[in-house]
Amino acid sequence: MAKKSSVEKNNKRIRLVALKKAKRDALRAILRDPNVDIDTKMKAQMDMQKLPRDSSPSRVRNRCIETGRPRGVYSRFGLGRNKLREFVCKGIIPGLRKASW
User: Are 66 and 78 in contact (CB under 8 A)?
Assistant: First the structure.
């Protein structure tokens, strides 16, 4: 199990990303628009910098939904490699089977 504080911090980041997504996308659209004057772009850049750092989607860590493990997570299942193997052996995940040859 991962530390509870690490998992909670990541969950807080996920909520903050969802909360600030609309504002971040609007500012990004202004910055990418070639028809906008430089003063408006500078203002948008300053507003973007004022957003909380944790509202950036790249700061969210992909974690196992069962254990909170940050590494070895298969995003298709949302599980860490250990739990994925355990669930596959038990037959909980449909369509997957442990290889044997």
Answer: no
> What is the DSSP pairing of strand 73-74 with strand 79-80?
antiparallel
How buried is 20 (Cβ within 10 angstroms: 0-12 exposed, 13-18 middle, 19+ buried)?
middle
Burial class from Cβ neighbours inside 10 Å (0-12, 13-18, 19+) for residue 80 reads buried
pLDDT in single tens digits along all 101 residues of the chain: 889 999 999 999 999 999 999 999 999 999 999 999 999 999 999 999 999 999 999 999 999 999 999 999 999 999 999 999 999 999 999 998 888 87
Q: What is the pTM of this model?
A: 0.82
